[in-house]
Write a structure and sequence with these properties.
The chain contains 11 helices and no strands. The protein has about 190 residues and is mainly α. The longest helix is centred in the C-terminal third of the chain and has 22 residues. It starts with a helix and ends in a 5-residue tail after the last helix. Pfam families: TetR_N (PF00440).
Length: about 190
């Protein structure tokens, strides 16, 4: 990677952290420049505006999915479990991007479009789940998009609470917590 590419990448990474932590309006380009050890002019060499920089911080990771031919043979609970686990890991892996999306969506139309794109994007697993919802095989879920928003917002809220109120910068979600979360989504608080 060339020096210019490294500088640009460093600006994006530091901006992502700051936007996720402080929000767009509270993050000044001067602070980003200080964190990166560059001038504000350097930031504007790579990005036309602070909003362009914000948009760049929201890279999108697609969920890893198995081959679609194997999905039809899975039980509905297995399929839902696979999807919830994948989505949970995607949110945790890209936590700052999702935090920015949730925080900035009401304030920026461009971010709102990205939020809709990421939250409602269909993959083979979600398409198969939607078919099963439509067929009545998944009676507890009638709105797949609402399920997505619920999962994503729950992870963000729990992680933010952990960071703010527990004073811990480490992730709340280790493998055991991920499994507990998936189990809760699948079976609820009162397991029979």
């Amino acid at each position: 990677m060339r020096k210019g590419q490294k500088t640009r990448q460093m600006i994006v990474e530091q901006s992502r952290k700051l936007f996720a932590e402080k929000g767009y309006d509270m993050t000044k380009t001067m602070h980003i420049a200080d964190q990166c050890g560059v001038s504000e002019a350097t930031i504007y060499k790579y990005f036309n505006s602070k909003l362009d920089l914000l948009m760049e911080t929201i890279s999108h990771e697609k969920l890893e999915i198995p081959e679609s031919s194997s999905l039809h043979h899975k039980r509905t609970e297995e399929l839902l479990e696979l999807y919830v686990r994948q989505l949970t890991r995607a949110v945790l892996t890209n936590f700052e991007q999702y935090a920015i999306l949730f925080r900035e969506t009401p304030l920026h139309e461009e971010i709102s479009k990205k939020y809709v794109q990421y939250t409602y994007e269909q993959n083979e697993v979600s398409k198969e789940l939607q078919v099963r919802i439509n067929n009545g095989d998944l009676s507890g879920v009638c709105d797949f998009e609402l399920l997505n928003v619920g999962i994503i917002s729950s992870i963000i809220a729990m992680s933010t609470h952990h960071r703010i109120h527990k004073g811990k910068q480490t992730s709340l979600f280790d493998e055991q917590k991920i499994e507990q979360f998936v189990d809760f989504i699948l079976h609820g608080a009162l397991r029979s």
